[in-house]
Amino acid sequence: MTSGKNLRQRLHYIIFDYDTIPAKAFDLVLIVAILLSVTVVMLDTVRGIHTAYGEALYLLEWFFTILFTVEYLLRIYASDSGRRYIFSFYGIIDFLSILPTYFSIFVPGTQYLLVIRFFRVLRIFRLLKLVKFVKEAEFVKASLIASSRKIVFFLFFVLVTVSIIGALMYMIEGEESGFTSIPKGVYWAIVTITTVGYGDIYPQTVLGRTLASLLMIVGYSIIAVPTGIVSAEMAVMNEKIESELSSPCESCCSTTEHDEDASFCKICGKPLT
Amino acid sequence: MTSGKNLRQRLHYIIFDYDTIPAKAFDLVLIVAILLSVTVVMLDTVRGIHTAYGEALYLLEWFFTILFTVEYLLRIYASDSGRRYIFSFYGIIDFLSILPTYFSIFVPGTQYLLVIRFFRVLRIFRLLKLVKFVKEAEFVKASLIASSRKIVFFLFFVLVTVSIIGALMYMIEGEESGFTSIPKGVYWAIVTITTVGYGDIYPQTVLGRTLASLLMIVGYSIIAVPTGIVSAEMAVMNEKIESELSSPCESCCSTTEHDEDASFCKICGKPLT
Amino acid sequence: MTSGKNLRQRLHYIIFDYDTIPAKAFDLVLIVAILLSVTVVMLDTVRGIHTAYGEALYLLEWFFTILFTVEYLLRIYASDSGRRYIFSFYGIIDFLSILPTYFSIFVPGTQYLLVIRFFRVLRIFRLLKLVKFVKEAEFVKASLIASSRKIVFFLFFVLVTVSIIGALMYMIEGEESGFTSIPKGVYWAIVTITTVGYGDIYPQTVLGRTLASLLMIVGYSIIAVPTGIVSAEMAVMNEKIESELSSPCESCCSTTEHDEDASFCKICGKPLT
Amino acid sequence: MTSGKNLRQRLHYIIFDYDTIPAKAFDLVLIVAILLSVTVVMLDTVRGIHTAYGEALYLLEWFFTILFTVEYLLRIYASDSGRRYIFSFYGIIDFLSILPTYFSIFVPGTQYLLVIRFFRVLRIFRLLKLVKFVKEAEFVKASLIASSRKIVFFLFFVLVTVSIIGALMYMIEGEESGFTSIPKGVYWAIVTITTVGYGDIYPQTVLGRTLASLLMIVGYSIIAVPTGIVSAEMAVMNEKIESELSSPCESCCSTTEHDEDASFCKICGKPLT
């Protein structure tokens, strides 16, 4: 019993910690295994490689899947609360990333969904200086959330624009130019406004080209809008961090006598804590 | 008479309000109807779907048009001032979005203009926290207006550039490469400077490729200009909002007694003037 | 003699001023003539239009050229100093924009250079509120000058990158994929790094595609650099303008007694003028 | 012996200095030679030119290589410490830029790697006002380093996205549309998310086009993220430089007598702490 508990504790240290050397080694091995397993799935779809090494890759795929299955079960066993792990973000990713291989027995082709394993590499941020990276991620996240309403508004505007331009192009260009339906026109408009421009469909009439030119210039100009939004938001956030770091000035506020009712230093205006 | 007035008032509450539950339900039903009706128009242009379900989609299109016609008339009836509603932004959109179906009886093909109905979805912002979204929209709008003169100046520069490059490419490349006229050269220059790059026309001589390379690098560099303009404008605007939030708070600083040597309010930390 | 001087003065008012009604009318007529003349040159290159209206367009082209020649001579006559006008920015543009038609008598095809006339439209900014637009132009110009060294540095980096990648792709892909020489490889690299992507040349080997992917991601990431440079520069410039507008605070500095040796107000820290 | 030392010193002045006229002349000749030698290598790959001038270009290539070899040896001889020069950034570049020609005797085709000589042009910044350019370079470098963690995080997100979308497109589109393997799907996803859009591979099914549209809009939106990061970082850096320039000037504030009630230095306007 005690040894069982000890095993569990040791497992917990290895799997869930990230400061100790065995935990780091475990993470490193895990990430290499993940990258290898995704590479195996990807390479297996290349015809030449499949013909030559198909069987070996198939075995490797099963080897990694079984490995990750064992790891998944150990994680449930070693976690403080199995249920909490299972329904956590990583728990779900871990589960989804073993499922496709088993599923492919019944429905061939689904094993390609294994690329979801890539998400497991998020753990890599544990190996690097964790806290700092989490901060960066949270910075980007916070900026995006702060600007999300503006971006939703912007995307809605883009959506309406491509729908209307798509319908107009369908009417102007017609089937000869490849605009065989409004949805296809909308698809073309998205390809154009985002400046991807495959060239599989393109206007061929004078009116169509004029409208397309307008759309391109609009697309080129409005890229400034989301960029501006996010830039401005990040600048504000940077400033907040700066001002937080530089707020209570020790030198002034510790030498000054503050009135009892003061919430701010009357000399330098810094908030008193 | 009174019941008529009551009916009108009740309609007004349902149609024009957005805080009550029946008004929200009405808006939600309306938006679903709009999205469905646009989808019907779009799908009807896909050949396979048209052959199979053309008649049903035709009937649906008329169903939605009549529905929106009734709604339009009710809006006129229920609004405080029919005339003001008719000539308001939403009134015109509502009118234009029922017109194409009736018009298509005389001129087939015009029903595709129904995609204008998409603009009616702007009402969706009423369902979400209205005021906040209006603020975001106004923020984007104000930033764009503040930077509009700079952007007009920039677009003029782009226009002159593409005209001159378009003419030069027509002279350099000629008809074999697809540059069959100056307008087509200008169209190519727009496709290139906006980095869309369909590939339907492209330079094939050494001189043409060199000029194209220059245009691309210019295009790639000057995208920075409108982005910079809008970003800077938005940063200024963000700062204004911030400083408005933190500007000398009347309520505090006029009721507090300040020490003679105080440069900052000791209660709220605002600088004293 | 006096009437000659009067004529000259009157011409000067009409041609070089921009506040009076006749001067504005003159500018407006001029701009319409410029746009029409460029349109004539452009349309004449469209085959269908050339066949049908070629002769009429040819006459129109000469009509506009003679008109602009007369205007050019009048400008020299009416200007305070003919020489200074001739060698000014506008003087050179005006001269260059009549030259191609005369030149095309000897070398056919050069008339297309008439598109340079577009630059004359810069005068349009005189019709609009001149001073404000000049300010905007100067703002953009100043920001670009302030960031020009950083952008030159950036362009040099881009140039070295595309040269090296272009040479590598020539070695990897070879002639079958269209990479027939290093200059063509460099051209492809420019098309790719600027995200234009015509698709006339593209990698077809695994190694080539991998290198291309790297180049794309680099190109996609470094677009941030010039944008960031210009944005930051414009933000700084905006702040300077703001702080200039808000510097000497009347309320404080006019009521305070300043020491004789003070360059700044000792209460609010604003510079004293 | 003394003359040997003198020669060495004179060489050192010419090669490693950049303020004197002979040193500047040497740098200028060097840069012209570098640009010419790279042009020679590039032009030699153009078939027409190779046929006509192949032999002359071959001789020129060897001429430049021997020239640079002599220069390299002189640099080692003239430097204060030969070893330190050899292992410095420029030393390695100088060595690598003569190697390919010698190497091409054994392995033909490797001479194209000579384009690495381009890096030697970095010396050009010595001719221009050196210190300022180094500052600009350091500014860009510092901004990129400050935002590197955020950009790594962003690139990781892009990588995971293109892998998953690439695999999905392989499953949806299959071989007929050119998605012959997952790596090719990933390549397509990179071409799309970076808005390059060659058009060599593109979706042809409805589901594929829908997914592609999503990817494009995501790609179009998230370009805002790295731009925002770098812009914000540069804005912060600009501010730091500004505030450093305007930070409490020791020389003034420690020598001035301040009034007791002064919150700001009355000489330089800096806030007093």
TrEMBL record, chains A, B, C, D:
Transmembrane segments: 21-43, 55-74, 86-106, 151-172, 211-232
Compartments where located: Membrane
GO MF annotation list: voltage-gated potassium channel activity
Keyword Ion transport on entry: yes
Gene3D superfamilies xrefs: 1.10.287.70, Voltage-gated potassium channels. Chain C (1.20.120.350)
Membrane-protein topology: Multi-pass membrane protein
Alphabetically ordered keywords of this record: Ion channel, Ion transport, Membrane, Potassium, Potassium channel, Potassium transport, Transmembrane, Transmembrane helix, Transport, Voltage-gated channel
InterPro entries: Ion_trans_dom, VG_K_chnl, Volt_channel_dom_sf
Residues annotated as domain Ion transport: 24-239
Source taxon at top rank: Bacteria
CC annotations in GO: voltage-gated potassium channel complex
Keyword Transport set for record: yes
Coiled coil: none
Gene Ontology process terms (BP): action potential
Principal location: membrane
Family annotation (PANTHER family): POTASSIUM VOLTAGE-GATED CHANNEL PROTEIN SHAB, VOLTAGE-GATED POTASSIUM CHANNEL
Protein name: Ion transporter
Lineage: Bacteria, Pseudomonadati, Chlorobiota, Chlorobiia, Chlorobiales
